[in-house]
Amino acid sequence: EVELVESGGGLVQPGGSLRLSCAASGFTFSSSRMSWARQAPGKGLEWVSGIFSDGSTYYADSVKGRFTISRDNAKKTLYLQMNSLQPEDTAVYYCAIPRAGYGLNAYSFRGQGTQVTVSS
Question: Which positions ≥6 away from 57 have C-beta within 8 Å?
């Protein structure tokens, strides 16, 4: 059974940092593309970042230069380092598996999410 469990969210002041983690199980993590997506209050799901099995990384323009996606295949864990956080980054952040044959922003599975709130 596929499982993605996010952690690391919380309340942070503007300009602060957080690192999200996603523990994966039930599939071959090392050979899978992975994505982070987020959903702000009252808005739709927004793709944030993705990483291929070879380590290639991709970012939405809104987070480029501030967020860094990475993976540890030995630990079957996906990460998202978020720096220079702003109130508009407030959202529930999801770890997701991109759907085969589609781009990084179409998902076959995603976790339950972790809340990130950026506020003073």
Answer: 49, 50, 51, 68, 69, 70
3-state secondary structure of 48: strand
Read off the DSSP letter of residue 99: P
Question: 89, 92, 94, 50: which is closest to 71 by C-alpha?
Answer: 50
Q: What angle do CA 73, 77, 82 make, to 5 degrees?
A: 120
Do 50 and 98 meet the contact criterion of CB atoms below 8 Å apart? yes
pLDDT in tens, the chain (120 residues): 999 999 999 999 999 999 999 999 999 999 999 999 999 999 999 999 999 999 999 999 999 999 999 999 999 999 999 999 999 999 999 999 999 889 999 999 999 999 999 999
The pLDDT tens digits for 55-83 are 999 999 999 999 999 999 999 999 999 99
The CA-based dihedral angle spanning residues 54, 69, 95, 1, taken in that order and rounded to the nearest 10 degrees = 30
Contacts (Cβ under 8 Å, ≥6 apart) of 105: 35, 37, 47, 50, 98
